Amino acid sequence: MVVRVLRSPWRFVWAVLRGLVVAARAWRGWVKVVDYREAAEESGKLADKFENIRELTLFRWKISGSVLGAAVLAGIAVTVVYGAVALWGAGAVAAIALAITGRKKDGNPGRKPTLAGPRTLTWTIDSQVLVDAFRDAKLIGKDETLRLVERATRQGDGWAVTVDLPATRKAADVVKNRDALASALAVDELQLIVERVRGNGGHAGRVAMWVADKDPYAQPPLRTPLLDVARWDVWRAVPFGRDARDRKIALPLVWTSLLIGAIPRQGKTFAARLAASGLILDPHARLYVADFKAGKDWDAAARVAHRFLSGDEAEHVLALRDWLVELVGEVQRRYRRMRDLDDSVCPESKVTPGMSRDADLDMPVTALFIDEVQVALEDRTPISVQGKRLPVGEYIGELLTWLAKKAPAAGIILALATQRPDSKTIPSGLRAVLGSRFALRVMDWRDSNIVLGEQMNTRGFDSSRLLASHKGVGILRPDGETEAGADVLAMTVRTYFMPNDDWRTICERGRVLRESAGTLTGHSAGRDLPPLLDHASAAKVISASSGSTDELPEPLASVADYLADDLDGDGREFVPTDELRDALDVEPGQFAKDMGALGCRPTRQYIESEDGTRRVRGYVVADIRAAVERPRSGDIGPTGNAEGGLR
Questions:
Q1: For an engineered disulfide with 102, which of 19, 284, 611, 633 has Cβ 3.0 to 4.6 Å away?
Q2: How many CA atoms lie within 13 A of 392 on its CB side?
Q3: Interstrand relation of 248-251 and 158-164 (parallel, antiparallel or unpaired)
C-alpha cells in the first residue's frame, strides 16, 4: 500500500506525458487532413483531391493559430484579473484531462493504435461523398454528378435523401445494383433501401434512398396489436408488421388472394395466422382452414372455423377437393344472386360490406387458408373427372386457379402457404392470379421470383438474401395500397409476433363474438355437414376456363416476358446475351445450355453501341418467337420433349 502511494505521483506524471503525446498526434492528424487523404488514396483519387486537401490543411492551420492566440490572450487576461492562482487551476484541469486521455489501466498493454475502421455515413453531411459512392458503384460516370432533390433528413432510425440522376441514367439500374451502392456507402445491403420515385413527383431518373443506422430487422419482434382490440372489421387491412422505417404495415385481404412462401422454420405459419386473425375477430367472416402440416399450430382455429381439417393423408386431400368444389358452386351462386340485386345494393359485380353482413343474402366474406399446400398439389391419388383419370393434386391446382380468378370479387379469399415455392409445386397459372405475395427467406433467387413474381430480383427484391437470423422477416408485395404508399411495388416487413398463447386468445375472442352475433356455423358449431357438391358443374366450368396454351418452361418464360414488345414482330431482330444475362440475373453457362435445349442457339452479330460497331454473342428474336409458339404443336425443343426439355 505504501509503495503504491509513493508511486502514484510518478504514474500521474507518466499518464500526463502519454496524454500529451496522444493529443499531439491527434492534432497533427487533424491539421494534416489524414482521414481525407487516406480516403482519397484508397479510392485512387488523390490527384483529383490534392487542391481540396491543400486548402483544408491551410484552413486548419489558421484555426490552430487562432485558437492558440486566443488561449494566450485569455491566459494573460485571467492572470491580470485573478493572479497566478487561476493559471495553476487551469493547469491542474488540463493535467487531469491529459492523464485521463493517456491513462494505462492494469492488465492493459497500453493504448492500441487506431486502425482504419469502417467508413461512416458522412454523405449525410457532405453530398460529395454520396456522388463519389455512385461513381465507385459505376452508377454514374466520372464526370457526372447528382442533383439533390431533397437533402438528407432523419426518418426513423436512418437517413433519407432523394436525388436526380444524370440524363439517360435510370433509377432502375440503381435499384438493380443496390449491393454495389451499399458497398460504396459501407453499409449492409439490408440497411439500404433504394426506390424509384413514381407518380407526379417522380420520373425514370429520380431515386429515393434510405439508410438505416443499424440492421433494422435485428430488433425483437413486436406483439400483434390485434390483442388490444375487442373486434375487427375484415374490410380493413389487417395489421401485419413493421417495415425498416418502423412504419406500420397492414395487409389488405378482401378482393384479393395471398401466397406465402419460405423454407421451413422462417415464420410462414405465423404470417398466415396474422392474416387469419383479422377474419377471426370479425364475427361476420367465415373461415375454412386446411392444415396439411398436421401439427397443432392451427388447432385453436377449429373453435371458429366453418370447416376445418388437419392431416396429410389422401383422405384429407380428397376432403379439400370437396371443399373446393363446394366453393366453386358458392361462387357461381353469389354471381347469380348479385345479377338480380338492385344497383343501390350491389352497384358492381362485387360483394360490398353491407352485403357481406346481410344474413338474408348469405354472402359473408369467406377465407380459405391452406398451410403446406404443396401436400395437396403433389398428391397423386387418381380420381375421375368427366370420365378422365388424373391425379387429385392436379385437379386441386385447377380448382384453386379458377377460384383465385373468380372468387375474390365474390368475397371469397384464398391464402396459401408453402415451404416448397418451386415451379413444379405451385403451377405458374395459379401463381399468376394470386394477388398478394409474401416471401420469407428462401434458398435462391429463383424461388424468390416464384413467390414474388418474375424478375423481382432484378428490381431489388430477393428474399434469398435475407439472413437466417431474420425470423419472421420477408418481402411483401401487396395487392392494394399500404402505409408505404400506393406506388410502392414491394417492401421488406418484420411481421408481428403472435405465439400460440396469443393465437388461442384471439380464437377464443372470435368464438365469443360469433356466439353473441349468432354466426357460429359448421365445424365450430358442431354441425360438420358434408359439403354441397356438384362435381359435374365444377368440372365443366374448370374445363371451360382452362386455356389450351401450354406453360412455357424456364428460362424461356422469363425471356418471353422480357422481350414481349420485340416478339410482336415490330421490335429488334437480335438481342445480346449480356443484356439477357443482366436483365434476368442468370448464370451464363447454364442459361446457354437451357436455351439450346429449347431450340434457341446463340450466334454472333454486329451491333451499334456507344463504343462503335462491335460483334457480340446473342440470340435471334425469330428463334425465340418460334420457341414460344412451339408448345401449341406439342413440341418444345429439338428433342421433342413436350415437358420443356429441362430436367
A1: 19
A2: 21
A3: unpaired
Q: Which residues contact 457 (CB under 8 A, 6 or more apart)?
A: 445, 448, 449, 585
Q: Where are the beta strands (DSSP E) in 60-191?
A: 147-154, 158-164
pLDDT at 485: 59
Per residue in 152-205, pLDDT tens? 788 888 888 899 999 889 988 898 888 899 998 888 888 899 988 887 888 889
Location of C-alpha cell 463504343: 611
Grid coordinates belonging to 386: 368427366
| Amino acid of residue 147 | R
Which helix H or strand E contains 208, and what residues bound it?
strand 206-212
CA dist 44 and 67 (Å) reads 34
Report whether 189 contacts 179 (CB < 8 A). Answer: yes
Residue range 285-298: mean pLDDT, rounded: 94
Structure confidence at residue 493 (pLDDT): 93
- The C-alpha cell that represents 344 in the structure block: 343501390
The strand pairing partners of 495, in sequence order, are 241
Angle at 289 between CA 288 and CA 293, to 5 degrees: 160
Q: How many Cβ atoms from other residues are within 10 Å of residue 268's Cβ?
A: 26
Q: Of how many residues is the chain composed?
A: 647
Q: Which amino acid is at 586?
A: V
Cβ neighbours, 10 Å, residue 381: 14
First to last CA, the chain: 81
| Residue 463 near residue 440, CB atoms below 8 Å | yes
| % of the chain at pLDDT higher than 70 | 83
Contact 192, 181 (CB under 8 A): yes
| Degrees, nearest 5: CA angle 322-506-353 | 65
* Tens digits of residue pLDDT in 195-252: 888 878 888 899 999 998 888 888 888 999 999 999 999 999 999 999 988 889 999 9
Closest listed residue to residue 207, CA positions, set 124, 149, 263, 247: 149
Asked if 590 and 598 touch (Cβ cutoff 8 Å), the reply is no
For residues 157 and 216, the answer to whether their CB atoms sit within 8 Å is yes
pLDDT at site 75: 78
Question: Kind of pairing, strands 158-164 and 147-154?
Answer: antiparallel
Cell 491529459 -> residue: 98
* C-alpha span between 400 and 317 (Å, rounded): 13
